[in-house]
Amino acid sequence: MQILYVEDDKFDQLAFKRILKKIPSISVEIATSHNEMREKVEVNAYDIIIRDIYLNGAKNLDTPGNIPVYFTSGSKPVLEQLSKKSIDSKFLLLKPIRLQDVQKIVTDYTNISTEPDFSQIDEWADGDEHFKNELITYYLDEIPSQIQKIEEVALEGDLKKLADLLHAVLTKLRTFGFHDLVNKVSKLEYNARNNDLAMSVCNQRLEPIIIALHQTRLTLRTKRIT
Amino acid sequence: MKGLKSILLLEDDAIEVKKVHRALKKLDIPNNLVVCRNGVEGLSWLSSNPDNLPGTILLDLSMPKMNGFEFLDRIKQDSKYRKIPVVVLTTSNHQEDKLRSFDKQVAGYMVKPVRYSEFVKMLKTIKSYWTTSELAY
């Protein structure tokens, strides 16, 4: 997991790096300004940005890229104000950042929701539960071999093939409304296709996806109407 | 069904095939749906059915063996197939893929999973095209 930590205070930077030494699966890069943050996001595939609300004395919440952003501040009222401005409080961190804060971020990131949203299928089914069940059965039949192929290709280290296989699985995931999983798979497909990840990092990100894909089978089995 | 032009669907995902079947049935479109799982199968079907060319081709872009773009290149270079309207059904929402498809003269581009109402709209457009074109059924 790669985090971009955006902070202009040297002490906070050191404290954050020290915390991360206790979580070896995370690598961190530091940016100290908006411009540096933008430049780094353009050339690196970060999973998460953790950034100070005030950088070099100026408050600017604009953050580049389509990456989850956690905002930090040493002031509780400042964070409360942001929370009122529709930023989910789980994305607000009070400084100094603690080990458990980062652990929670990691857990949130790796836990992928497999709760389906049947709105698309319901529209097609139009009340026909038999049709809905048939689609679920197709999913349950086809997804195991797709998962297996993804795992094989990941072992071979072929990023292009991996991107193709992830792409193939996306239609199904979208049809069944596995939104969280769709986001993760799309992102990994993009990175794999553009060859901008080392295979080891790719495999690291693939692991929770594979678990979630298996989980979708269990979830859908329970939703099938008998 | 005899006398009616078939619809050729190139799709390797059983769920998508099932959805197309359902929409045709619900709209009372009696044309036969021919399903091929990749471009190679699609070309082979076309060449072995010269007297029963489809009225429309529904084409997935991402398929094994021969992908949708390769298939499009082949049929647009062949005067026998060039005029068959092709509608792309794909997961890709990338601008580049859309432009590339329209460069190859596709009749439509739909991002999967397609909403039922959008799909029906597209099928109705095809139906009206059939009634006014030389490919009328």
Topology diagram in text:
The complex is a heterodimer of chains A (226) and B (137).
Chain A lengths: L1 E5 L3 H11 L6 E5 L2 H10 L4 E5 L1 E2 L2 E2 L9 E5 L2 H9 L7 E3 L4 H12 L8 H7 L3 H28 L2 H17 L3 H15 L5 H25 L3
Parallel strand pairs in A: 1-2, 1-3, 3-6, 6-7
Antiparallel strand pairs in A: 4-5
Chain B lengths: L6 E4 L3 H13 L6 E4 L2 H10 L7 E5 L7 H9 L9 E5 L4 H9 L4 E4 L4 H17 L5
Parallel strand pairs in B: 1-2, 1-3, 3-4, 4-5
Helix pairs in contact in B: 2-3
Structure commentary:
The complex is a heterodimer of chains A (226) and B (137). By secondary structure, chain A is α/β, with parallel strands linked by helices. Helices cover 59% and strands 12% of the residues of chain A. Chain A has nine helices and seven strands. Chain A has helices at 10-20, 34-43, 76-84, 99-110, 119-125, 129-156, 159-175, 179-193, 199-223; strands at 2-6, 27-31, 48-52, 54-55, 58-59, 69-73, 92-94. In chain A, the strands form two sheets. A five-stranded parallel sheet of chain A has the order 2-1-3-6-7, with helices on both faces. Chain A has a two-stranded antiparallel ribbon with strand order 4-5. Chain A is globular. With 137 residues, chain B is of the alpha/beta class. Chain B has five helices and five strands; from the N terminus they run E-H-E-H-E-H-E-H-E-H. Chain B is globular and about 30 Å long. The mean pLDDT of chain B is 86. At the A-B interface, helix 5, helix 6 and helix 7 of A face helix 1 of B.
Which tags fit this structure?
heterodimer; A: 226 residues; alpha/beta; 5-stranded parallel sheet; two-stranded antiparallel ribbon; 9 helices; 59% helix; globular; B: 137 residues; 5 strands; 16% strand
